């Protein structure tokens, strides 16, 4: 039986501690490096790597040797869209349990969304979140701060950036007021941080619970039309096109019409990026029939045509990165009729194998797949991580590409188990997660 173990980050590896990773297939997606060799970490950074490193044997000055047995050693995964529910809903997830889930999935950096209770819309709450992360996390924790207070007044964006915010969003809800959104885009351009939008026109989607289509009609529930997403994306592109140095990011894109607008904006040189969640390129609205509320999320699972568009968007580069939208819920919030249950699924522990399906199905090559999980999301939030370079922080994930396993939600490290991927056979798994030079997770 496989055993898992975790260790708190505690600010990284101690000073002067050297670890040698030998017999590894080292892949760095940004530089297209793909070699068999060794890598050395010294304290929190990568000291050296290469095919001939330790050709004469590992020196006695190295404190620890880890034989990778030919497995893939890659930059740590960066997930820029998670909900850890702290503060306010710790019965669903905490930074401690969420970071354990991240580590088990090979994720070394997460970006928490601000729709906690209360939301992260003040410096005091931002500092509280950072303090809790420092005390209890197994991985690096970054955060978005809220764009607005209650949807009708901008937050103190400059002060929140000083407190550590890597960007701003009202995720969970869109910024419906176009004037407020335009003001937020202007301020963010001066702060050099992205505005991330949950793209949804609430007037079009109000009361909906799954995608508007054949399945919603069959089940007799109100649907959410895909145009509700595309309308908001198009509106925001119009709002930002005359603002210099602005960066607009579309969260969890799901609609082919949204991708069409994003692609057009990119062609015109507009600084727009977007992410997709694994469930939107692996599942469709048809899966709601089998999984019921476990397959209810917002944006909802769309049509097969939309799913294929997501894969093509990843292949073409229109979609910049992959993020989970990890949204834990307790049983009481999910075990309800479809129209009454909460939106969202957990995703950190299935992120890597579901994404690797793109590689195994020959949709993308391995380097491109891993790039969508590493340096590309890191660049969106301007965090200098997710590269294998000398003197770069040693955030690493050791991956067994051939490890086939059945998803068992009862064994998730997350406090919540709401996932439609229960019993799915997947391939590829993180067996060691290293953050700032320190091993924080091992699967044996």
UniProtKB/TrEMBL annotation:
Keywords: Hydrolase, Metal-binding, Pyrimidine biosynthesis, Zinc. Pathway: Pyrimidine metabolism; UMP biosynthesis via de novo pathway; (S)-dihydroorotate from bicarbonate: step 3/3. Its EC number is 3.5.2.3. InterPro entries: DHOase, DHOase/Allantoinase_Hydrolase, DHOase_cat, Dihydroorotase_CS, Metal-dep_hydrolase_composite, Metal_Hydrolase. Binds 2 Zn(2+) ions per subunit. SUPFAM superfamilies: Composite domain of metallo-dependent hydrolases, Metallo-dependent hydrolases. Residues 71-258 form the Dihydroorotase catalytic domain. Its cofactor is Zn(2+). GO terms for biological process: 'de novo' UMP biosynthetic process; purine nucleobase catabolic process. Zn(2+) 1 binds at residues 81, 83, 171, 325. GO terms for molecular function: allantoinase activity; dihydroorotase activity; zinc ion binding. Transmembrane segments: none annotated. PANTHER family: ALLANTOINASE. Belongs to the metallo-dependent hydrolases superfamily. DHOase family. Class I DHOase subfamily. Catalyzes the reversible cyclization of carbamoyl aspartate to dihydroorotate. This is Dihydroorotase. It comes from Candidatus Mesenet longicola.
């Amino acid at each position: 039986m496989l055993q898992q173990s975790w260790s708190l980050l505690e600010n990284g590896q101690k000073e002067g501690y050297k670890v040698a990773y030998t017999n590894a297939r080292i892949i760095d997606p940004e530089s297209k490096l793909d070699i068999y060799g060794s890598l050395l970490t010294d304290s929190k950074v990568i000291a050296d790597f290469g095919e001939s490193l330790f050709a004469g044997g590992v020196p006695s000055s190295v404190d620890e040797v880890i034989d990778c047995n030919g497995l893939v050693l890659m930059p740590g995964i960066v997930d820029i869209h998670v909900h850890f529910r702290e503060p306010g809903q710790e019965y669903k997830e905490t930074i401690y349990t969420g970071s354990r889930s991240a580590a088990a999935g090979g994720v070394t950096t997460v970006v928490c969304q601000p729709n906690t209770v209360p939301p992260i819309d003040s410096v005091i709450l931002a500092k509280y979140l950072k303090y809790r992360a420092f005390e209890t996390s197994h991985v690096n924790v970054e955060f978005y701060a809220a764009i607005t207070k209650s949807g009708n007044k901008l937050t103190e964006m400059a002060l929140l950036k000083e407190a550590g915010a890597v960007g701003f969003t009202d995720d969970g809800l869109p910024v419906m007021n176009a004037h407020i959104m335009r003001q937020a885009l202007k301020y963010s351009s001066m702060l050099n941080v992205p505005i991330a939008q949950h793209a949804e026109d609430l007037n079009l989607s109000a009361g909906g619970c799954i995608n508007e289509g054949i399945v919603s009609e069959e089940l007799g529930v109100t649907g959410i039309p895909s145009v509700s997403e595309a309308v908001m994306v198009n509106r925001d592109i119009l709002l930002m096109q005359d603002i210099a140095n602005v960066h607009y990011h579309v969260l969890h894109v799901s609609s082919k019409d949204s991708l069409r607008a994003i692609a057009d904006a990119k062609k015109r040189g507009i600084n727009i990026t977007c992410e997709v969640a694994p469930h939107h390129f692996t599942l469709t609205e048809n899966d709601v029939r089998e999984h019921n509320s476990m397959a209810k999320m917002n944006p909802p699972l769309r049509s097969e045509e939309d799913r294929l568009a997501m894969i093509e968007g990843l292949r073409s580069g229109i979609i910049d990165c992959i993020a989970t939208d990890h949204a834990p819920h307790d049983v009481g919030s999910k075990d309800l009729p479809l129209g009454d249950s909460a939106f969202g699924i957990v995703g950190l522990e299935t992120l890597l194998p579901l994404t690797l399906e793109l590689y195994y199905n020959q949709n993308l090559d391995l380097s491109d797949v891993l790039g969508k999980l590493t340096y590309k999301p890191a660049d969106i939030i301007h965090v200098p991580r997710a590269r294998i370079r000398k003197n770069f922080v040693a955030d690493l994930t050791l991956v067994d590409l051939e490890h086939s396993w059945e998803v068992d939600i009862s064994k998730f490290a997350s406090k919540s188990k709401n996932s439609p991927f229960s019993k799915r056979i997947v391939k590829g798994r993180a067996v060691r997660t290293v953050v700032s030079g320190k091993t924080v997770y091992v699967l044996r």
